[in-house]
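ok posting inputs for the flavin-adenine dinucleotide job
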Amino acid sequence: MQAHEFEDLNYFEACLPIEEMARRGYDTLRFGPMKPVGLVDPRTGNEPFAVVQLRAENLRFSSYNLVGFQNHLKFPEQARILRMIPGLENAEFLCFGQMHRNTYINAPRVLDADLRLRAAPNVFIAGQLSGVEGYVECIATGFLAGVALAQQVAGAGFTPPPRSTALGSLIHYTSHADPGNYQPANISFDLLAPLENPPRAIARDRRARRARQCERALADLQLWIQTLCTINSAFGATDARHG
Ligand SMILES: Cc1cc2nc3c(=O)[nH]c(=O)nc-3n(C[C@H](O)[C@H](O)[C@H](O)COP(=O)(O)OP(=O)(O)OC[C@H]3O[C@@H](n4cnc5c(N)ncnc54)[C@H](O)[C@@H]3O)c2cc1C
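and the output
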């Protein structure tokens, strides 16, 4: 590991460096970024032991990026190890892998459920800085901060989306997670509120349980949108389509 002593190697589990995955077990990489599932080698008809996904970096297809190969290794070591992969023996490296660091606040400690700083309620914080991770999650919390701000300006209190929805569960996470060990989170079924007393057949079947959670989320989201529209019209917001 090439980390400096002052670096706190507190990795985000969904984005581990390859050397950390390799350390966790012989097969860890091929169940992660090197997963071969569904890729049959036309020459043999077999699934390979492991694969590397090369994603074109430009439209000329003159450079490729190794998907999921973030790492903390020294550059000469990266070149040595990656050239051991069949097909990459003579690869020319334009840019080596690097780890990126997320900066985020302890949202449950300093933000309220409206994504406002408790100490300065005119300041809204969303996205990565609020401790959610990923494109969609950052857009989702940015959207909610916008709605909350608009409602504050209109003089209406913010009605957060219910926790049964993905939007609501993200904002519930930023305001209710344990502040003693706050970590960035992606959206997942674990963040959604569990089903209340589901029939045993559904409780035991993960796919059915998740399908029920999605149905409930869509229904609850629809109700939340209706509530927002009612509040907005009560507070005099105009619909752009009607001027
Ligand atoms: C290498 C890498 C790969 C990733 N891959 C994925 C992926 O495959 N899928 C996924 O879902 N997520 C991925 N992520 C995570 C995702 O990019 C972030 O979670 C998300 O983009 C964060 O969005 P954000 O709007 O909160 O912040 P950012 O996207 O970081 O936007 C913040 C913006 O604020 C600007 N800014 C900063 N300071 C100032 C200032 N003082 N004044 C004005 N502007 C300022 C910055 O320039 C930037 O444009 C990846 C991240 C990295 C680094």
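notes: The chain has a mean pLDDT of 90. Residues 41 and 47 are 6 Å apart (CA to CA).
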